[in-house]
Every structure is written in C-alpha cells, then in structure tokens.
Amino acid sequence: MPRVNSSLIQYTNVAATTVRDIAESAHVPFLVSVAVLSLSITKNVQLLKANREECFRMVEQIHEILCAIVKQYSNLQMDGVLPPKLLHDIGNFAQTLQKLHVFIEAQQRMGKIRQFIKQLDINLQIRSCKTEMQIAVDTFRVQSGISVPLKFSELKQDEEERHKELLALLEANPDLTKSEQGLSSVTGTLSSVGNSSGSLSMLPGCPQIFHGRERELQELVDVLQDDEARIAILGPGGIGKTSLATAVLHHEHVVNKYSSRYFVPCHLASTTRDLVAVIANHIGLEPSPNIARKILQHLTYSEPPLLVLDNFETPWESTTSRSGVEDFLAHLAEISHLAIIITMRGVELPGKIKWTQPFFKPLKSLSNTAALETFLDIADETHGTEEIMQLLAMTGNIPLAICLIASVAVFEGCPATLNRWEREKTLLLSNGHDKRSSLDISIMLSFSSPRMTSGAQDLLSILSILPDGLSDPELVQSGLPIPNILASKSKLIATSLAYIDQGHRLKVSVPVREYMQTNHPPSPTMKFAFRQYCHQLIRVWTDFRSGSSGNTLFPIMINAGNLRAVFLDALTMECQDEITNIRSALSFLPFCRIANHDHVIVMQAVSSRIMHWKEDAVYGEFLVESVQSMHVKPDEIDAMIRTGNSYFQSVPDTKKARWYSSLGSYYFDHMNDVSLGLHYFRGALDLADKGADNYPSRTGRWALDRIASILNHQGNHSEARSFAQKAQKYAEYLGDPLAQAQSTYVEATCCCGLSDFQSAFMLCQRARNILLACGLGDGSTYFYIKTTEVDIHIQKTEYKEAEDITLSIIASHSPGKPATFSYGFALLNLALINIQTRALEETINQNLKTAKHIFSTVVPVPLLVLYCDTGIADLALREGNLRCAQSQFAKCFALSCNLQAIDASLFCLERLADHHHRMDSLTDTLQWAAVFLALSYKTNNKLALHKALQCLGNVFVCFQRGHWDSSEPVSCGI
C-alpha cells in the first residue's frame, strides 16, 4: 500500500487555501468550489484503502493546477474578473473535481464485497476521472508554458518547486488574497441647476429651489471660516455646482466673515487674457495695461474677500492656455486672506495651487427624496407619485434635468411628458439656447471638450447602450477596438461624462446615454466586438449553470442589463452573427426567470427573427423556451404545441424529453392542470432515461424533482419522497451539487407533508450546506430552503424563529426595486405569522394586500393568491368577524379542491372543523370535521390527522352535552 505523501497533502492544502482566499476577496466564479472540493479531497484521500495510487497521482495534478491558477490570477491582476476562456477552463476543472470528490466519498462508504461487485463501474469512473484530470493539466500547462515532466523524481522536484514559487509569489504580493479594490469612486451622475448671473456688479440671487445639498453647503461654510480656503467644486455638467456656490455666497456665516464677495462667470474666457479681463470687470476695475497686477493689488488690500470663479474649465482645459491660467490662479492663491472657490466640470484639479484638504468631493446626483422635492417645487403635487418617479428615473436625479422635465410636466402633465420622452429623449429637455436651459448643449460641451480623445468618444458611445457599465477587467477583456482603453476611461471620468459606481464599474447616466444613442451611437464594428464578449459570457453560464459552478451567476448578474440591451439591439437589425445572437438570447432567458428580470421583450425580439432559422436546431430551443415560460399568447399556445409536437417527432429522445418537460411546466405551472403536468413529466423522465441509455441525465433529474413536487402537492407525500430520493441519486451520479441541493430540498418538503419535521429540518440543513460549499448561498434554491424552514417553525408554533428568518428575507429586498416572488412570499409568510402573534390588524392587512397584488399581477401564481385569501379569512376569524371568515374559508376550500392544493385544503378545514371558532352550526361543523378527517387520512398527514380527530371528538362532546351557543348558525354546503 503506498504511503501517505504528507508533503504533497500539505502543499496542496496551502495552494487550495490560497485559491479560497482569492475567491473570498473577489467574485471569481468557480474558485470557491475548486478550493472547497480540493481541501475535501486531500482530507478524504488519506483514508482510502483502494485505488490510492491513482487518487494520489490526481492530487499531484490538482496541486499543479491550483498553483497555475494562482500564478495566472496574480499576473492578470484583474480584481477577480478573469477572461471567459480561463473561466471556462476553471469551470471544467471544478466539474472534474466534483466527480473525483463523489468517487472518493462513495469508495469510503463501500465495503469490500460491494467494491468487488461494483469493480467494473469503479474502474470506469476512475478512468473517466483520470482522463478529465489529465485534460485539465494539459490545458493549464499550455496556458502557463510548462513542459511535461517524465519521471517520478521530476514530479517530486516539480511539486517542491511549485510550492516554493507559490510562497514566494504570496510574499511578493501580500495583497493578492485581500479585498483591496481601491478604484477611484467618482460617483457623480450629471447636469446642473445654477443660474450664474451675467451682471458685473451684483451677485446672482440665492437659489430658491435647493434640496439635497445641505451637508455639502455646511461643509463649505465650515471650511470658509478658516483663512486661506482654496476650494474646487467639481462634478459633471448640470449637477448643481453653480447653485451650491451661490448658496454659499449668501449664507449668513459667509456674509459675516467676507466683506467683499465676487462671483465671476468664466464660460466666455478661453485664454488667460480673457480670464484676467473678466475678473477685472467683475471686481470693478477699468481695463488698463498691467491689469493682472492691479487685480492682485486690489484683492490684497481689500477686506477679507471671497472670489468665486464659475465654469473655470473653459479657460483651464485648453492645453495652450492652461499653464498661464494656473500661474495666474497661483498668484491669486498667494493672497493669504483671499478665499477662492472654483466650479469646474470633471474631477481634475488645476495644478500649481495648494487646495484645502481634505479635498471637497465631486458632487453626486440627488437622492430620490431630494429629487422628488425639487420636482414638486416646480410642478406642484397634483401629479401621481408613481408617474413622477418614472419621470425622475429618466433624469438620473440630475438637478438640471429634473428642473427641465418638471417645467414640461407642469404644463403638459406627467403622462404626456412620459410619451414625449419616449419620442424625443433629451430633446425634450433642450429647448433653451445655453447649457443652463438645454441638456443637449450641456452634454455636447463636455463631449467636445479638448480633454476628450477619439478613443474616449468611442468608449462613451458603446457605454451608452450598456446600462450596467463595465469594470476595468471587462474593459480590457471585451475586445473593443479602442487603443489603451483604460486611458480613454480616465478621460471620461476627467470630464465627468462617466463615473465609477460603488461596484467599481464605469457607468454613464441616463441623460448622457440617451444623448449619445441619438447623436453619437456606437459603430457596427464596436457593437460586433462587444457582442463576441457577451457570447463568451453566455457560454460560461450555459455550460456550468447546473454543475459545480460556484458563483457562475455573478458575471451574468452584473451584466444582465448589458446583455439584455445588446441582444435587443442585435435582434432588431440584420447581423452577420444573427444565429449566434438568437442562441445566446435564448440561453440568457433562463437566467432572467431565475432573477425575476423582464424577459418578455427579449423573447419577442427572438420571435421576430426565428422564422428565418426553422431548419436549425435553435428552433427547437425556441419552442421549448416559449412553452415552458409561456412566452406566447393564450390564443396561440395550442398552435405552438401542435408545431412543437410535429417538430420533436423526428429528434433524439433527449431533446424530445426537454419538450415534454416544458409541456409539463406549462400545464402544471400555468394552467394548474395537475394530471396533464404529471403525465408530461413522467413522459420526460422515460424519454430522458431512454435517450441516455438508462443512465441518469439532467432532464431526467429535473423530471423526477417535478414529479415529486406534484405528488407532494396532491398529498401523496410518501411516493413523492421516493421520487425526490431518486433525483438525489441522479444528481450525485452527474456530479451536480446544485441539483443535489434542489432534490434534497424537495425531499424536505415531502417530510413536512408527512409531519416528519425533524427529518425535514435535517434535509434543509444538508441542502443548505451543499449550496454554501459551492458558493451558491444566494440563489433561488437557498431562498426556498429558508421558506421551508419558516414553514417548519410555524407548524411547530415556533413563531419567533419563523419571523426572524422571514424578516431577513424581506430586508434583503432593495427598496425601490421591482417586487419579486421571494419578496411577496416573505410578506405572505410574515402576515400568517403575525396573525398568530397578535400583531396589528392594519399591518397584516397591508402585507396580505401587497403579496396578493404581486401574485396576481407582477408574478402571477394562482396558488399563492389562494394562500393570501386564506390569510385574509384567518385574520377575519382572529378579529371575531365570523360570518366573513366562514364564507371566505368555504370559498378558499372549494378553490383549493379545484387546484388540488392539499395544504391549503387542510388549512381551511382545520379552521372550519374547530367548534371553538363557532363559525357554523354544530351539525355543519361535524360535517367539516368528517371531511377534515377523511382528507388527512387519505394524504397520510399525521399532524393533520391528529387535529382532525381532536376536532371530531370535541364536536361529539358538544352533542353529548347538548349545548352550543349559536343562535343563528351560518349554513354551509359541502
């Protein structure tokens, strides 16, 4: 028996720990899975008694690959965003590790006799693992330029050399495994409300509409109380720099300190001479030779003066005059008692002057509250808040844009203004003739700035169609034909045409994006280049979305808006890569469903182009997606299904299985037809297994899960559990931890139906741990597990624990974002919990109303609308409104029977059969109790059976005693 190579285990653990630290410090897909699986393999491989030599050989290969990954990551220095090709290779490696991990664990659980019986299968599995591991090694060797060692001594030497290189690399790069993404965070957005005066003798008036800048105003006033204040108010055009400066000029504390206050608009001064002349005019000096010296003398001998130089970028940004302008500004700064404020587009500070520290941060767009207050000050409160918020979303909360759009709305109303925006975009806000009354002119001035380059203009054009923006790694890897693209990024930030958001992504505000799309759209070459990058991202998602993929969702999540915009743009025109665009768009749609993003418009765009490709396999994918997600009008669905049945007659069973699975989803999820849904899922299972030569397949695993869910829904909990357990075996064979977690969760719900809450809770914990081990702790499956745990706590009357979990789900929903399924479900659960904990009726009603709206319109789910109605009935019962409660429970019970929703039926019967509630006559209550007992027995629900017997016994006791305090019972037909 080969001895345990302790140094190899130690070296591999160091490499795996390094990879894990990198994964935790940056959102690198797959690396969490790679690290966790590697550490588990090194632990378990030491306990093996069979196949040790082959497994240790693969551990050596794992060590080599881990070191190669760390080395490549350190060379790229891309803050976690790796090229799609490298991501794809790491994803394949993660799947290989998962298979090896499953094999080793199975070997540990297997006795000698079973190993002997399964020897053929074991040999096939280990041969598959060795082949895939060798492919992974060869792939990373090619990328790293490493030659292949031939002898064991060379392998041993390589192992030690790699370990030394890794330690040296970590010593030279101490920040490699720390989260230090200190990119400049210029989070401005755009435009300015400021009316600087052209008067030579008067200050501009104090702004009358001034919201959201109280903190900045106080900060500037405080700085001006000290001597030698040198302040630059920076930010994009229209952001409110001039308004803030004039508000400072009129502040009481500033007026008291500075006897002389000057406001000098510099937008007409293009040279140093022009700047000197305009300053002289505004401080009251006559034109003369040596006027610059006279300005300095005048300010030197004045009482403490405050000089505001507005729009200072005009004289400063020209490279021919910049040095002279900075020299004159430096001379002004030498006057110790003179306070200087400049306002300037962009984020760059003029040189040759010591600015007051800490520097005043560039202005950001207004908060939602301040934007709304600004709008209402102009357009009053006669408009609907929802319509106003739609308009404000078009402005990016930029003060100038808000003022201009409010001025239109005050005369035309919000609906008409929204319609005009759809037609005219920024032209709607550009009726004026200067930058303070025309948004287009304001943006155009920044776009044509001498600081801009052709590369920066090209980058701005492509960013105009990318609402999610791009990170630095994505800029570099995108393949955009822009030389030195990061320098172009710096130009956009310097002119404040773009900004860096909190996620360190380069973004462009809504008004600038609309202006660019209208006036300077990206070229076809630029669009084509970026589409190729999008196709690579989608390929990573499709290849690994259901395997041991770590957080493969992350690159798609942060680019979801970009992908949607790019595919919509491509599908509205003739493109040389049309078939690839259609295929990528169809692959993108499942993500949209998972993330609850709008996907209807994408499918409509695909539908408009797909008819040209009816002979291609992509047409089958289109049919599956259309039916499964109901991307078809109700009056067209029958024709679509007939077309699909005809199309899939002549395709392999594996593809036909996917079609049957989509039909099962359609009939069960959308039509509430349980029998047809079950029929097609069973058909999908048979076809999937047949098409895969009776080996487990992903479609078969999915069908098993859905069959289990439907049977559980019908009350056949024991049979459902057996299907869920079989699905877990499929997932284990496939090496698919996400699927394993999903199937484990389904089994947990079956145990809940059987009132086996201990097993249900243990299964939830197991599913949760699987997801966490693979870095998938924030997806939809994790949410469903948490809601099942809530249900377990409710059934055990542990309301405090249930409420804590539910509140954490609600807190994760971002305010202002569209309502999601998870948010609505959490509100429903919270309402049901609060009914039992005697919370305020008004609060419960509001949560039920919101949840019902979500499940009726936003995310239509008839079953959950039913649960909302049962909650309304339960609340009426709690408040003593017995007639309303009885009527509502009876209606809900009838509907639950139609939907075959056993849990809802039992919920209603439990209330109707309880004589303590006295909603019915004693005779009717006896009938309800009998139905409750029959349904509990039929579904083998032990807890419900116990409650039904208790209800029945209590009714018999009442009959025996001959008393029932109900003068006017409500009749009920069952």
TrEMBL record:
Q: Name its GO BP terms in alphabetical order.
A: cell surface receptor signaling pathway
What are the Novel STAND NTPase domain coordinates in residue numbering? Answer: 208-345
Q: Which SUPFAM superfamilies match?
A: P-loop containing nucleoside triphosphate hydrolases (SSF52540), TPR-like (SSF48452)
Superkingdom of origin organism: Eukaryota
Record-given protein name: Novel STAND NTPase 1 domain-containing protein
> What organism does the UniProt record list as the source?
Mycena maculata
